[in-house]
Amino acid sequence: MPLQIKSRVNDTEKHSLDITALIFNNNKLYSASDDGKIKVWDKNLKLLDEVIAHPCSVFSITIGDNRIYSCSNDGFVKSWPLNNLQCEEIVLQEPNEMYKVNFNDGKLYVGDDAGLVRIFCKSTMVGVLEIMHPIADLLALGNLIYTARDLYVLVSEIHPETKRMATVKAIEGRSPVCVIGEKLCFTNRGGKDILLHSNSKASEFQQIAVAKV
User: Where are the WD repeats (predicted)?
Assistant: First the structure.
C-alpha cells in the first residue's frame, strides 16, 4: 500500500532552512533545523511551540528525563524542559562542533567533529570515548555505543567495572544507523544499499541481508 500525505505544515510556520532531526514523543513531533530553531507540533502538524535554540544549525536532538537536549556547530549542548522549552542548562560548551546527542538509560552521549564521545550523567561528565573520526551518527543501547561516519560503523563497549571502553567491531558502512530489536541497520559506503546485521556480540555482528536500492 503506497504512503499517503495526511497532513502538511503551514507555509508560514515551517522551518526556513533544512530540517536536521525529527523525534516523535508523547504524541508530539519535535523538529530541529539549520535555522537554529526547535519546533513542537501535534500529530496533525499544528505548531504548538518553538524556540531559537542556537544561533546557527541545530545538528541533533534527543529526549530523556522529560527534557530535550540539543547540540550545534556553535559548540553548545543545551537542555530544555519538554513542558516549556525554556533553556534549563548549558550541559557543555566547547570550541568543537557538536554533531550528535543521544540519551539512553539515564545518560547523555555527545559526539563531536573531533571524534570524541562524551558521556554525561546528571550533567556530570563520567567518561570519554575516542573514536578518532567525526561522529556523523551516534546511538547508545545498554553498554554498547554505535558510531558512524562515511566508511565504518563502529561498535564500542563500555566496561563499567573498570571504567574502560573498547571497540569490539568495525563494519564497512555509513550513517544513518538504527537498531530494531535484534537487528542492526545502516547503509553501505555508497549510501544506496541497506545492510542488515545481527545485533549480537556472539555472532560478531554478522551480516544477514542486503537490500539493493
Answer: 12-42
Closest CA to 171 of 137, 141, 127, 212: 137
Cβ neighbors of 201 (< 8 A, separation 6 or more) are: 157, 168, 169
H-run or E-run covering 33: strand 28-33
Distances (CA, A) of 164 to 92, 105, 156, 159: 22, 18, 10, 5
What string of DSSP letters covers 48-85? Answer: EEEEE--SS-EEEEEEETTEEEEEETTSEEEEEETTT-
Residue type, 192: K
User: Would you state the cell numbers that stand for residue 33, as one nine-digit string?
Assistant: 533545523
Nearest to 167 by CA among 206, 127, 142, 132: 132
DSSP string for 95-159: SS-EEEEEEETTEEEEEETTSEEEEEETTEEEEEEE-SS--SEEEEETTEEEEE-SSEEEEEEEE
| C-alpha distance from residue 155 to each of 129, 140, 144, 162, 186 (Å) | 12, 10, 7, 18, 13
Cell numbers for 198, please give them. Answer: 545481527
Kindly report, residue by residue over 25-56, the tens digit of the pLDDT: 999 999 999 999 999 999 999 999 999 999 99
Give 182-202 pLDDT, tens digit per residue: 999 999 999 999 999 999 999
**Grid coordinates belonging to 122:** 546528571
